[in-house]
């Protein structure tokens, strides 16, 4: 619980910030195009800082890297609160996004090292569920404490949650945390990681990228199609919220299935259902039918709770753990960022009705590759958990 509850606090703050980034940008007189840039920087900043996060964690260890991540988050969020221009706000949004990248990697490295391999799927699906829960709770917290005129309250909520969550986590340190400091010299170049683990990245990595791309597309296609068929913003929000509740309800059963029946038993339903949900979206013409498509997307996403992290933890070597997981996060974050961009490109080059079919077919093609070539963890890797890196 000392890992999960502090992260629930922090991600609740993040959930309070993300939905109001556009409004915060408008408060510093950003144009609509500049406001979109601010939102994009929140994800792109995380992706860009994935590899530096690996180098920092490998060099300084888990504890010091967590402290650096907290400092980046606090500085970035404080800067966002005080920003009075678009450029300043954009810079500090990117800074806090980098802090989140480092914080997320430290937590993933820690869990991949200390979670018993036979329970790794449950441990990481629970971690994924905590992130989802925080992002669901966060907007409600914002509504409770904010005034309608100041979107920057979202930054304040996130800042307080970071201070509380990090203080809670650092106060609960035990010997297993300090064992992570031994990995500080185990740095491996990203290119060497890709070469040494090319089969893993070509199979499991493709699955992770596909899941992330489908998830990223999901966040764009539902409101995009809702607007296309004439639903108002509140109806689109209601559809997405109900879909997210279904998603959240499945995170622990997904972890149990992953540990009991293997990773493929979770990866395949996740990719297939997300793909089918995309195929169903353009067939919907009213609230109910779009909700049913979003429901399928929510079930598929729920099946995949924590699975991208679990695959990375299964494959990571003991030596160079942080560097490997940094590259793995870069692959998954790249998919998340690519999803909305693919949707946008299809709309610009063809038609909005083709977004679902094209992305859905891409997902099903990835499912075929995963079904054919994804390797389950070797039995020896699921027998006992290492207590620390040698």
Characterization of this structure:
It is a single chain. This protein has helices at residues 4-17, 21-27, 32-48, 50-82, 86-114, 120-145, 153-171, 175-179, 190-196, 198-228, 233-249, 251-261, 264-280, 287-303, 307-315, 321-349, 355-373. With 390 residues, the protein is an all-alpha fold. Helix 15 (307-315) crosses helix 16. It starts with a helix and ends in a 17-residue tail after the last helix.
Number of domains: 2
What is the fold named in CATH at topology level of the largest domain? Growth Hormone, Chain: A
Top-tier CATH class of the largest domain: Mainly Alpha
Radius of gyration, CA atoms, in whole angstroms = 20 Å
Task: Tell me what portion of residues adopts beta-strand conformation.
Answer: under 5%
Shape: globular
CATH superfamily of the largest domain: MFS general substrate transporter like domains
What's the helical proportion of residues?
A: over 70%
What structural category do the secondary elements indicate? Answer: mainly alpha
- Spans of at least 5 consecutive residues whose pLDDT stays below 50 are 379-390
Please give the count of helices.
Answer: 17
Major sheet description: none
Helix and strand pattern: HHHHHHHHHHHHHHHHH
Number of strands: 0
Instruction: Give the terminus-to-terminus CA distance.
Output: 26 Å
Tell me what the CATH architecture of the largest domain is: Up-down Bundle
Output mean pLDDT: 85
